[in-house]
Structure formats: structure tokens, C-alpha cells
Amino acid sequence: QVQLVESGGDSVQAGGSLRLSCAATGYPYNRVCMGWFRQAPGKEREGVASISTGIGVTDYADSVKGRFTISKDPANNTVYLQMNSLKPEDTAMYYCAADARPWVRLQPGDFAYWGQGTQVSVSS
Fold this sequence. Notes:
By secondary structure, the chain is an all-beta fold. Helix content is about 0%, strand content about 50%.
């Protein structure tokens, strides 16, 4: 059974940094696409970043390019999201997701497995 467990969410001031982690179990880690998504109150879930764990190709939403970095640690079956220069508009519940189709993409509907989320709050 696939399980994704996120951690690392917190409350920070604008300009600060956070690193989110997603620990994955139950599927072939090195041949999937994993992504980070976020959902703010009253808004639709949106893609933030994704990575093809086999070849390391990444994709980012325009709103986070240059500020966020997605990376993987095969030794720990973990994917990270390093978030720098955080803005109040980055405030949201952040979710990790995975799908067996390995190409990178940012559409929430394309991902089969989801974690429970971790809250990120950025104050001005």
C-alpha cells in the first residue's frame, strides 16, 4: 500500500525559508513522478513542483520558480521541497503526491496517491 507522509510545515515570516519532506513507502520509488501541491482556503489545489525520481527531471509553477527547489533522496525514499524567499501568498496546506507514470507534470488530477498535508503559513 502506498503511503506518503509530509512534514516540515510551520509558520514563518515573509522572506524566510522552510523545507518540506515527503517520506514514501509501498511502491517503486525510482520509477515514479512525485509532486508538491498546495491549497489555500477558498482556492483550488494547484501544482507547485514535480520530479521524475528516475531521471531527476523537474518542473515548477511559474509562481515559485527561482524560490522553490524540489529534490530527492533515494536512500530514504524521500522528496523534499526547499522553499526560500517565502511570501504571504505561499500560505497554504501543502500536499505530497505520487503517480506511477514517471513524466513530470503539475495537474493534481494526474496523481493517484496523496499525503495528508502539512500547513505552511507566511506572515507579512
